[in-house]
Each structure stands twice: as C-alpha cells, then as structure tokens.
Amino acid sequence: MITCSAPGKVYLFGEHAVVYGEPAVCCAVDIRTRVSVGPADSVTISSSLGTTGIDFETHPYVSAVVERFREITSLEGVSIRIVSEIPVGSGLGSSAAVTIATIKALDTLLGTGLELDDIARMGHEVEQRIQGAASQTDTYVCTMGGVVMIPQRKGLDLIDCGLVIGNTNIFSSTKELVANVAELNESFPEVIGPVLSSIGMMSTVGEDLVNSKDYVSVGKLMNINQGLLDAIGVGCAELSSFTYAARNNGAYGAKITGAGGGGCMVAIAPRERVDDVAAAIAAAGGEVVVTEATDIGVREESR
Ligand SMILES: Nc1ncnc2c1ncn2[C@@H]1O[C@H](COP(=O)(O)OP(=O)(O)OP(=O)(O)O)[C@@H](O)[C@H]1O
Ligand SMILES: C[C@@](O)(CCO)CC(=O)[O-]
Ligand SMILES: [Mg+2]
Questions:
Q1: Are 14 and 104 contained in the same domain?
Q2: Is residue 298 one of the residues assigned to a domain?
Q3: Distance between CA atoms of 81 and 89, rounded to whole angstroms?
Q4: What is its EC number (predicted)?
Q5: 174 and 144 share a domain?
Q6: For range 258-267, the mean pLDDT
C-alpha cells in the first residue's frame, strides 16, 4: 500500500477572474487529503462518497486520473482509498487535492517517474475535463505548496499570520459556479469584464504586500475582492455574515475562498486575535477551521 497526500488551499485574491486569464494569489493550507493505492484485479475507489469502480457520477476526478494512467501504462486494476480532512465541495480545493494525491500515488505505484510539473499539468487537464473550464491554480498550488501567484507560477512568501476558515456547510459545485459567471459575463460583458480585471488587479497590487508581510493592507484588498465576488453573484447571505463577523472581531480582512455560492470564507488575522475571529464566525453559524499556510505540497507519506 502506498499513501500520498496533498493540501487544500485558500485564495487570497483572484478566484473566478483567474479562469479568464487574470492573476490570482493562492495559498496551500495545512489540511490534507490522503490517498492510498495498492494492486488489485479491478478498479475500486472508496471514499466518504461511497465505494465504486470507474464512476464519473460519484468519483469523476479519480476516475479521470485512472483513465489518464491507462493511456500511459498498462494499468488494469487498482484499489484506491481516500481519507480527507478537506470538506468536499467547499472552496478549499478538495477536487484538486484528491486529484493530485491520486496522481502522485499512482505514479509511485506504477513507477512512471512524473516530476512535480508533470503532476500539476496532469491535474490541471483532469480539472479541465471534469469542471469544463478550470484554471491551473488549485492543482498547481496543491502540488507545490506555499503561496503561488498564477499565471506566473511565482512563489511568494509564506503567509505568517492566522488563517480562520468559516464553512457554511452549503455544498457548492465549482463547475456550476464557473458556468454561472460565464453566463453573467455573456449577458453583460461591458459590466463584468471590468469587474474581472479589477479582481485581477488585487494580485498585481497585493504581491509586494504579501512579500513584505503587510497584512493590514492585504486584508483591505481582500475586503475589496469580497465586494467584487458578491458583484459577480458568487456570494450568499451566510458568507457575507461570516466575513462581517470576522472583520468586526479583529481580522485584517475576510472573503469567500474558491468558487463561492456556499462553501467557505477565509479570514486572515493576527495570531492573538484568531480565537476572537473563530468565536465570532461560530456565533454567526459557521463551522470553524483554524489553520496555517503550509509549504508542503504533494508528498509520499508511507509505503
Ligand atoms: N474526499 C473526497 N473523496 C472523493 N472525491 C472527492 C473528495 N473530495 C472532493 N472530491 C471530488 O471533488 C468534487 C468537489 O469539487 P469542487 O471543485 O466542486 O469543490 P472544491 O474543490 O471543494 O471547491 P473549489 O474548487 O472551489 O476549491 C466532489 O463532488 C468529488 O467529486
Ligand atoms: C472558481 C475558481 O477560480 C477557483 C475554484 O477553487 C475555478 C478555477 O480557478 O478553476
Ligand atoms: Mg475544486
């Protein structure tokens, strides 16, 4: 049995706009998905979602990874077991983490010798196939770890303050949210185009602020980014309520992370205010995860 793991992620800036080629800044976080693989006669995929064979309804990302390996190896059967700390369909990159950890586990089992860049590229192809339109952000950051600026693939300084996540526990499908934004953009291109460009500008302006650890200014930009995410229709009442709760209780800034429409928000906060921010989000009805940035990307855990 070989076990590999990959981290979840939060966006400081730029989700959705990055699908249109705008820059984004994304940060790997210390909650992980673990995928164990071993030889078997047929394909079995087991996770909290159920136990299946190749099945594009229940396990689309993992099924697509298996099909991709069948193109480059003589793979027939394999047993795949997924255990994840990352809530599913939550904006924390659960699809990227399961995809990348499965690729690394199969690469290790089958001896295909993929480099990290190959793993990130294959992961992106899988997300594009299943999601319809997908940026390289989630799969790249979850492969490499750390804080990454996309599309430059540039590593920024690791975030050195508290990260507090508030989960609405409202399931959201990234595929659907990306399609909704595309529809809005088709209806009002003159209005939505500039909003997407402004979202991209957050990363351009924010890059130096992240590297100089000016989290007061990073937080202000995150708050502006949140307003623009609301403008493109990916907010919801719970996400707004949690972001205001965080901001009113010591956070530098707070916004949706990932696709939105439900899922999670993220606040950055001084470490001494993390407990206050967490309590305020919980009082507003959120399920809280306190975490940290991590520079550990995909890795083998055991064999
Ligand atoms: N632990 C898991 N086991 C099996 N499949 C998973 C697991 N976690 C995620 N998935 C797959 O990923 C899908 C959710 O991906 P989706 O992109 O919609 O949300 P997300 O990745 O959590 O959020 P975002 O893309 O906004 O960061 C699930 O429906 C499932 O197919
Ligand atoms: C909404 C989106 O920008 C982020 C999802 O985590 C989609 C993508 O980049 O593929
Ligand atoms: Mg996803």
A1: yes
A2: no
A3: 19
A4: 2.7.1.36
A5: no
A6: 97
279 plus 239 within the same structural domain = yes
CATH number, domain containing residue 123: 3.30.230.10
- Tell whether 297 is covered by a domain: no
pLDDT band at 97 (very low <50, low <70, confident <90, very high): very high
Do 110 and 45 share a structural domain? yes
Please tell me whether residue 141 adopts helix, strand or coil conformation: helix
Q: Which domain holds residue 16?
A: 2-155
Distance CA 33, CA 101 (A): 7
Same domain, 136 and 274: no
Question: 4-25 pLDDT, tens per residue?
Answer: 999 999 999 999 999 999 999 9
Annotated binding site for ATP: 87-97
Query: Is the pLDDT score of 72 beyond 90?
Result: yes
Which region holds residue 21: left if phi is over 0, alpha if psi is between -120 and 50, else beta? left
* Residue 123 shares a structural domain with residue 167: no
As given in the structure block, the two tokens for residue 36 are 């164990």
**C-alpha to C-alpha distances, 297 to 74, 82, 113, 293, nearest whole angstrom:** 28, 17, 17, 11
Domain shared by 234 and 250, yes or no:
yes
- pLDDT band, very low/low/confident/very high, at 116 (cuts 50, 70, 90): very high
The bridge status of strand 162-167 relative to strand 264-269 is antiparallel
CB 249 within 8 A of CB 286: no
Residues 5 and 101: their CA atoms lie apart, in Å, by 5
Give the confidence band of 51 by pLDDT, cuts at 50, 70, 90. very high
Length of the chain: 303
What is the whole-number distance in angstroms between the Cα of residue 272 and the centre of ligand 3? 31
Identify the residues whose C-beta falls under 6 Å from ligand 1: 33, 47-49, 59-61, 82, 84, 88-95, 98, 138, 173-174, 258-259
